[in-house]
TrEMBL record:
Region feature (Disordered): 1-54
Protein name: Probable potassium transport system protein Kup
Domain K+ potassium transporter integral membrane residue range list: 65-510
Localization in the cell: Cell membrane; Membrane
Domain K+ potassium transporter C-terminal: 537-694
Record carries keyword Oxidoreductase: no
Pfam families assigned: K_trans, K_trans_C
Membrane topology, as annotated: Multi-pass membrane protein
Function: Transport of potassium into the cell. Likely operates as a K(+):H(+) symporter.
Catalytic activity: K(+)(in) + H(+)(in) = K(+)(out) + H(+)(out)
Classification lineage: Bacteria, Bacillati, Actinomycetota, Coriobacteriia, Coriobacteriales
Entry-linked InterPro entries: K+_transporter, K_trans_C, K_trans_N, Kup
Alphabetic keyword roster: Cell membrane, Ion transport, Membrane, Potassium, Potassium transport, Symport, Transmembrane, Transmembrane helix, Transport
HAMAP family the record matches: Kup (MF_01522)
Species annotation: Enorma phocaeensis
């Protein structure tokens, strides 16, 4: 078999070719800018500090701050519901409470939130943005040119964060629903049967994922007032209990935490850090969601959120001091100070509030997952998927495939673990991996991009040590549920590794050929009547933005794989701009009337109906005389238009058995193509589902293994 052996192609013809009748583009209107202007749409600028900038920043306003509170802080905002509960269980219950424990544990919690959230993420990470987008993949895209090895912490941290995003909705919503049992009336309804809690949780989870299509802006406006009320509730109730025993304010001193960590009275030992770490599990969401709400709005709202959180922890600590050794509370299973400290008439309100807050906590992780996957797709670490922009801000996006996968994963977690106590064992382990990975990338950013000398090394040593302690303490949960999070993270990273490795094999054979060198061949093919006319207009969608070059696979498809004769060939690429409502295009005809290189510049809010926009481009060129009339005798119209039929050709690469690649590379390619098959149809993304589409498979042009030469023998002889 030769290098250019044919591979069977599959042809899919619909009832119509998908190109509207003359004048059928309706209100769609594209501008044809000059090449200089059009080409400038993709330019990227980097400031001296290393941040990428493209498009206007999200302005700071009261409305945007309300959206920020509703979208970003849900995860970290629900931590008071279970952090003190976990600390109390690790110490041995209410009968083991001492003043040393309360002040020491609270001090560890307060400084965990301060160091990891305020210092690392708010003060340092938010400055490292890529076109306004945050998250570990956005950070990697800034620093990746400083070392190929940086792909490892990027994939490791990203996959762990996505895995944690599946677990968060399950554990927070289940915790809130279980709070219904602290109310006698609702306890009488649901009883002690955990399956009732599971059913209620699953209903809430399904509704939550179902409304994601509305977009984070609309969800944020709905959730914002609720979360504002939630944080005020945390702050006010915590402050009232703090007044009853102001001594808990001593916990602000970090020495109490350090002394208790190594004290013999610390029954949990180093594992107490695993419970303290739960107080900051939403910190990574602040960075990931930056593209949704803007850096300035996080700066403006975080002080208020942090004060409310600290007051809630202090209030629970004051209640513990007042009830230390209370035998009446000793018999309560999984005693939760957050609910128990409230008066009976307030508790129903707090439970309902906590369930709503748990839903919003899940929202923070879901929106962060959309941003992460979007960044991963741009970096070719994940397949490209259909993305919707429901709001006027580019950072606010919705990815159906990610939504469905997280939905299914969350349902599996709820059914597998059923109770929040079991889920908490798995909670937080994966996020420590993400934080360690982010620290590594931030060090490179500070040292290489920001050109700082001493501070990056201090930053690296301090946070690697701190987060290393948290990781070590969280490992103790591995066999109690942490294994599930690690397994899920491993599966996600496996997808990234397969896609990355498969893409690397493809890039080895990728070759761009100058279009002008093939114009004569294309002209002869157009006029060669010995070949049937595939279509009047044959359209190839490309990823390349270079006007003068085409991927070899496209030219191979036209010239070598049974030559595809047409009256005109169109090579179209779509570029999404930072402006929401861009309608522009450019055309290079290379001095011909049969080869056209088209660049469509569409805003991120614009529906990418390529066939409709291409119809307008073709109509413009026909009117200007750049495209000759394409006469045809048959039509449903009395007077046929000057434009003929269209066919869209979409190429898929395949790896021949004879390709000279090792088994690992072959496996990577096979897995990448398997992943691609379930990632969605590009034909649907580009509005071609009703068009005439030719899906063609072309070989990867990789070196073939040498074959032994055959010896010809006569028909009657046997070798």
């Amino acid at each position: 078999m030769s290098e250019q052996s044919d591979i069977e192609s599959r042809r899919t013809d619909d009832a119509t070719d998908g190109v509207a009748s003359p004048g059928g583009t309706g209100t769609l209107s594209l501008k044809r800018p000059s090449k200089k202007k059009a080409g400038g749409a993709a330019k990227e600028h980097r400031d001296p500090k290393g941040s990428h900038h493209g498009g206007a920043a999200i302005p700071v306003s009261l409305a945007a701050m309300l959206v920020t509170i509703g979208v970003v802080y849900g995860d970290i905002g629900t931590s008071p519901m279970y952090v003190t509960k976990a600390l109390l269980a690790g110490q041995g219950g209410i009968m083991s409470i001492t003043e040393e424990f309360v002040l020491g544990a609270l001090s560890l919690v307060i400084w965990t939130v301060t160091l990891l959230t305020t210092v690392k993420y708010v003060l340092v990470s938010l400055k490292a943005d890529n076109h306004g987008e945050g998250g570990i993949f956005a950070l990697y895209s800034i620093v990746r040119r400083y070392g190929k090895w940086l792909i490892i912490p990027a994939m490791l941290g990203g996959s762990a964060l996505l895995a944690d995003g599946v677990l968060t909705p399950a554990v927070t919503i289940t915790t809130g629903v279980e709070g219904l049992r602290t109310i006698p009336e609702t306890h009488a309804l649901i009883g002690d049967n955990q399956m009732n809690v599971v059913i209620i949780t699953l209903v809430i989870v399904c509704v939550l994922f179902l409304v994601q299509r509305a977009g984070t802006s609309k969800i944020g406006r709905a959730f914002g007032p609720i979360m504002l009320g939630w944080f005020l509730f945390l702050g006010i109730t915590g402050l009232l209990f703090t007044f009853t025993n102001p001594k808990v304010l001593l916990a602000i001193n970090p020495l109490y935490g350090i002394q208790f960590l190594f004290s013999s009275h610390n029954h949990a030992g180093i594992m107490i850090l695993g419970s303290c770490f739960l107080a900051t599990t939403g910190a990574e969401a602040l960075y990931s969601d930056m593209g949704h709400v803007g850096r300035g709005n996080i700066y403006a709202t975080w002080p208020f959120v942090k004060v409310c959180l600290i007051l809630s922890y202090l209030g629970q600590g004051a209640w513990l001091l007042a009830n230390a050794g209370n035998t009446g509370l000793a018999g309560i299973e999984d005693l939760n100070p957050f609910f128990q400290m409230l008066p009976d008439f307030v508790r129903p309100f707090s439970v309902v509030f906590s369930v709503l807050a748990a839903i919003i906590a899940s929202q923070a992780l879901i929106t962060g997952a959309f941003s992460l996957v979007s960044e991963a797709s741009r970096l070719d670490l994940m397949p490209h998927m259909q993305i919707f922009y429901p709001a006027e801000t580019k950072g606010q996006l919705y990815i159906p495939m990610v939504n469905y996968v997280m939905w299914a994963g969350c349902v599996i977690v709820v059914l597998l673990f059923q109770s929040s106590a079991h889920m908490e064992s798995a909670y937080g382990l994966a996020i420590t991996i993400t934080m360690l990975s982010t620290t590594t990338l931030l060090f490179v950013y500070l040292h290489k991009v920001r050109k700082l000398k001493l501070f990056p090394w201090i930053f690296l040593a301090f946070f690697i040590a701190l987060e290393g302690f948290f990781f070590g303490s969280s490992l103790t949960k591995f066999f109690h549920g942490g294994y599930f999070t690690i397994l899920l993270a491993s599966l996600i990273m496996g997808v990234m590794l397969c896609w990355y490795a498969g893409t690397a094999v493809e890039r080895r054979q990728a070759t761009l050929l100058p279009v002008r060198n093939y114009l004569k061949q294309l002209e002869r093919l157009r006029d060669d009547t010995t070949y049937d006319l595939v279509s009047d207009n044959l359209v190839y969608l490309t990823n390349d933005t270079n006007t003068d070059y085409l991927d070899r696979d496209i030219l191979y498809s036209i010239l070598d794989k049974h030559p595809k004769r047409a009256r005109a060939w169109w090579f179209v690429n779509v570029e999404v701009t930072d402006d929401p409502h861009t309608y522009a295009y450019s055309v290079e005809s290379f001095g011909t009337d049969y080869v056209f290189r088209v660049h469509l510049y569409l805003g991120y809010k614009v529906n990418q109906r390529v066939n409709a926009y291409l119809r307008q481009v073709v109509t413009d060129l026909s009117a200007s005389g750049e495209l000759p009339p394409q006469t045809h005798e048959y039509s449903v119209y009395k007077k046929p238009g000057p434009i003929g039929s269209f066919k869209f050709c979409m190429l898929r690469k395949t790896l021949a058995q004879e390709s000279d690649v090792d088994s690992k590379e072959r496996t990577a390619i096979a897995l990448k193509y398997a992943i691609r098959s379930v990632a969605g149809s590009p034909a649907r993304w580009y509005g071609l589902e009703n068009s005439s589409v030719l899906v063609e498979y072309v070989p990867l042009f990789i070196k073939f293994t040498s074959m032994s030469k055959l010896v010809r023998v006569s028909p009657n002889d046997r070798p």
